[in-house]
Amino acid sequence: MVLTGLDCLVARNFDRLRGRRVGFVCNQATITKDGQHLLEHLKFANLTLCAIFGPQHGLFGHTQDNMIEWEGAVDPRIGVPIYSLYGEHRKPTPQMLKGVDVLVIDLPDIGSRYYTFAWTMAYCLEACAELGIQVLVLDRPNPLGGVIQEGPVVEPGFESFVGLYPIPIRHGMTLGELALWIRTHQALDVDLQIEACTGWDRNSLAHESGLPWGLPSPNMPSPTTALLYPGGCLLEGTTISEGRGTTRPFEIVGAPHLDAFKLCEAMNAYELQGLHFRPTQFQPTFNKFAGQVCEGCFVHVRDPHIVRSVKTYVLLIRELWRMNGDSPFWKTPPYEYEFVKMPIDILWGSSKLRESVEADNIARLAWAELP
């Protein structure tokens, strides 16, 4: 049986936090194996709760679209301040952390470098190092497994809130392992503790863990979405819809001016392992092309263990570029607090992908640079 760090801590009635003044960094997916939220368990924990911190999309995932800031408040049901770490502040301030002895972080991650929860955690580690506050990370399995890595690391000069430090796109680490890596990489003088998850096979994927899938963000509805996200998120750096505003984001891709059948024929010709591309039409309710009928592809996952989504979507971007005609293709700044560099460049971690697509040299890049 797989148990998360939160499960283990709850089973011991939060023993390692007794007598401490505690802050929690969490969101709506911070749940135990029985589907109960952390805050429900805290009702009976007899802890001194000082503050709650929420990441991108809010404490309970209320900001549906991407890059929508939110601000905190005092929730009368909880009785302590709720602070936003995706708004005016991405790093907790000394005032926010006033009175906190230990900051507990449980942010269900999805194993992709762009996912901002990891960098919210990094800023929390920095703040706690500066203030002498202990950090406890409640670990969880990486839903993409802990073995496979995909994609390049961030090159110097391309750091951003979708990649502060040089890790691969699909990094293969748990949030706890990533926290330990960040502490070493940044030489942070912080008392970092990990409540480990137990029973996890690093070769297993999310659907094999037996744990409930709580949406870590509104556009991450299933483990299949998470599996495709390491590649699919690259489309955020283009003008092509990545399926936001539909019920299957990152599985659905397209734009009004595309030929769905031609696109799927080109993609299926690559014979990518574990995948099939089906022509589709869709009408997003928000984000790119809201209210317009788009044509494109539905990316069917046949065998999740052999899917390599970064390579897949690099090739998909190649075909979309070829079919795009005279329409603008690359999304321009701002994007995730970056106002100068191209979004596709900070997502990839360098300008190499964009330049290779424009030079139609993507086949060499896809096979030579992707692990």
Structural Rg: 21 Å
What is the succession of H and E elements? HEHEEEEHEHEHEHEEHHHH
Strand content: 5-15%
Bulk shape? globular
Average of pLDDT = 92
| DSSP summary, beta strand count | 10
Query: What is the oligomer described by this structure?
Result: single chain
Number of helices: 10
User: Which structural category do the helix and sheet elements fall into?
Assistant: alpha/beta
Main sheet, how many strands, which sense, barrel? 7 strands, mixed
Low-confidence stretches: none
**Helix share, percent:** 10-25%
N- and C-termini, Cα separation:
31 Å
> Order of strands in the sheet with the most strands?
3-4-2-1-5-6-7
Describe this structure in words.
By secondary structure, the chain is α/β, with parallel strands linked by helices. Helices cover 25% and strands 14% of the residues. The strands form 2 sheets. Strands 3-4-2-1-5-6-7 form a 7-stranded mixed β-sheet. α3 crosses α4, α5 (223-232) crosses α7 and α7 packs antiparallel against α10 (362-368). The longest helix is centred in the middle third of the chain and has 15 residues, at 117-131.
Name some characteristics of this structure:
7-stranded mixed β-sheet, 371 residues, 10 strands, alpha/beta, 3-stranded antiparallel β-sheet, 25% helix
Compose a concise summary of this entry.
The chain has 371 residues and is an alpha/beta fold.
Which secondary structure elements does this structure contain, and how are they paired or packed?
Blueprint (H helix, E strand, L loop, with lengths): L4 H7 L9 E5 L12 H5 L5 E7 L18 E2 L6 E4 L17 E4 L11 H15 L2 E5 L36 H11 L6 E4 L27 H10 L19 E4 L4 H9 L6 E8 L11 E8 L7 H15 L19 H6 L3 H7 L3 H7 L3
Parallel strand pairs: 1-2, 1-5, 2-4, 5-6, 6-7
Antiparallel strand pairs: 3-4, 8-10, 9-10
